[in-house]
Amino acid sequence: MNKLLFLFLFLSLVIFSCNKKDEISPYIQITAPNEYSNHNVLDTLSVIGTISDNEQLEYIKLSLLNEYNIIVTSVVTLYPETNEYSLNREFIVDNILLESGEYNLLVTASDGENETRKYIAITLNEAETELIGILFVETPTFNTVEVKKIKPDLSVQQVAFAAGDFLAAVSSTRNQAFYMAGSETGSLRSFSMLTNSEMWSVQANPLSGAPYFSDVYEDDGTLYVSFFDGEINALDKNGTVKLDILASGYNCYKVWKIDNYIFSEQQLIGTSDRRLFVYNASSGVEIQQTPLDVEVVKFFKRNDDNIFVFGNTGTQGYMKNYVISDNGFWEPHSLQNGKVFSAERIDDNTFLISQQNGVSKYTYNPNSLTDYLPSVIATSINYEPVNNLVFLSEANNVKLYNYSNAALLNSVTASTEIKSLSLLYNK
To answer: Which long-range contacts link 212-215 to residues 24+ away (Cβ below 8 Å)?
Structure first.
């Protein structure tokens, strides 16, 4: 009996010892970087310290958190396979989009059962915005599209090539990407401007005999695609559809997004009834619609309730002010004779408009339209606010002007007529 009792107590002790929980968490001591030290976005930080535990360390992670405790850079993971580790690791603040402010460098250590977190507050200075390229499109031969980039030193590099026709293109600084679409035969394509390679595509339907794509527009990393047969998609950087709007019975043309609105130019199939539709950009639900008497060339925001619409009726260009709250248009100023080819917003009060007799400058207050670049027939206009420059395309030339005095600073000649022009920044 005593032997059985002894055996029972012995086995209980063994089982208890084997199941005993490790209650000791790893210890973290960080000597660099210093608390509240100041750094720049894209800097390489030296993270130095000592991490120890009574058990073998399973992993150590280095990450950077914003004020909402969201990880905002790449995570560095280490597997020490020891219970004492001397940490001396480089950590790159590799998100160029980070704004100036306070962040937390987080060092996490785990032994598989217990985890310790050490926060080191640091301040970051955001990276300066820089223009890194001017992207333009040529169609040198039938059903051939070439994308080229003018670098800051004005040298020209071909960055993409595609077969098919060409309709429209737009760059995405956030995604460091370039998107272009054909009308009937050209696919919708996404190109990485980091690797100059195609990332994804959406095929057109050349057998239909009708346009497939009708416009593309980019806003903060999201691509908005207008399909001629009555559909609008919002795609993320991977080409995944995040929003699908069906416009039953209508052909879709220009698409544009600002704030939480999507604006779509549409025409009732088989009629001349052209309308402006406004959708909720989050849900895709229609908010309102109104008759539209121009074929849209460009949309621009003037303020939260007023949208400028530049377009044409026949051979004459118009500038219309659409009031969201009233769901109606009025005309702030008549334009010069001739069609509108392009337009650009300088600020809430100032716009440049290209027509067949040259480029004009419009100001809302005082309400005036004056010559800006007379006799320059620009098919694309882009304002570059960082350096206060205007880039425009005229025939097969890209021209660079000082915005303030309209002085020509430089030009680059392409092989053939330039079909599209857009700017690409580092952030």
So the answer is: 212/182, 212/183, 212/184, 213/167, 213/168, 213/181, 213/182, 213/183, 213/186, 213/188, 214/167, 214/183, 214/251, 214/252, 214/253, 214/254, 214/255, 215/167, 215/168, 215/181, 215/252, 215/253, 215/254, 215/255
